[in-house]
Design goal:
This protein is an alpha/beta fold and 290 residues long. It has helices at 22-28, 45-54, 57-60, 76-90, 145-149, 176-184, 214-219, 223-228, 233-239, 257-260, and strands spanning 34-39, 65-70, 95-97, 102-104, 110-115, 132-135, 164-169, 194-195, 202-208, 275-278, 286-289. The chain is 25% helix and 18% strand.
């Protein structure tokens, strides 16, 4: 790959390159406009974002600019660390500007790191132009409004191809349901192109697995055992297995689609209907039929 040089100013003789498996597959899928890389904790998601941006730096130089969002300001620290690992190795001479939270690559490419706490914060970027946009831990946002709004900033006046938006995340979090509905449910096994008739943009989900993160496991062999020792069955399913049906943090924490869901069938017309009413003293009133 053109962005993996043979030397590094970190005195590391090995250039950064994606790990074999899901991480490499996700980076090679640059032809997909929207891609979500997520699942288990420790799956190399932040490094993936840096590597995906880096994949086109050498070819497009100053015409290739990107931005990565996290929900809050303190969360950017992890991205800074991953950015130094990937970009410093891939492009000797790259600088990280602390005051502006951005990586400046010698050939003119720039990658900015920003936080976005509310839906309204997305409006601050409507006049910007980026060829690559990333959202790290997308499930930390309560909805996908900021994600969809930032698509308007992805454009190029220099004919750069493969403009794209990338996101990562784990099962759970306030945005679990929306992310699952948009990226996971249409193709639960992943690595399948999802065609959207409304936006005409194709998207894809690629499942990250901690078992494929050999760098982490070689450095910390006990990481998987610590995940197993959490003691919460649903958390283990979500964080170790990347199970999006674990319903972490939601009311039905014991949900198991294999045992609970019924196959669709035609409801007989003579079945009685039951109404249920919840006045919702602290929330909107709800009425349902069953």
């Amino acid at each position: 790959m053109p962005w993996s040089p043979q030397s590094s100013h970190l005195n590391d003789p090995k250039p950064w390159k994606p790990q074999k498996g899901p991480q490499e597959a996700a980076i090679r899928a640059s032809f997909i406009p929207e891609l979500f890389f997520g699942g288990a904790r420790g799956g190399g998601k932040s490094a993936y974002l840096m590597g995906d941006f880096a994949a086109d730096v050498a070819e497009f130089k100053e015409a290739w600019r990107g931005i990565i969002f996290r929900k809050t300001y303190p969360e950017l620290d992890e991205l800074v660390t991953e950015g130094k690992k990937v970009l410093f190795q891939a492009f000797p001479g790259t600088e990280y500007k602390v005051g502006s939270y951005e990586f400046r690559i010698p050939n003119g490419s720039i990658l900015r790191l920003r936080h976005m706490e509310t839906d309204a914060d997305a409006d601050h970027y409507m006049g910007h132009q980026y060829q690559w946009v990333g959202f790290d831990e997308l499930t930390n946002w309560p909805n996908l409004k900021p994600y969809h709004k930032l698509k308007a900033c992805i454009r190029s006046d220099r004919g750069v191809p493969n403009l794209r938006i990338r996101a990562t995340g784990n099962p759970g979090g306030v945005g679990h349901t929306e992310v699952k509905k948009y990226f996971i449910d249409p193709a639960p096994k992943g690595q399948e192109i999802i065609e959207d008739s409304q936006s005409e943009l194709s998207r894809m989900f690629i499942k990250s697995r901690v078992q494929d993160n050999k760098i982490l496991l070689d450095a910390d062999p006990g990481y998987i055992d610590r995940l197993k020792s959490i003691g919460d069955e649903q958390l283990i399913k979500a964080w170790l297995e990347g199970d999006w049906d674990a319903f972490v943090g939601q009311y039905f924490s014991k949900w198991d689609s294999q045992r609970i869901l019924a196959r669709p069938f035609e409801i007989p017309t003579d079945w009685p209907l039951f109404g249920c009413l919840d006045y919702g003293e602290a929330a909107p009133t709800s009425f349902g039929l069953a």
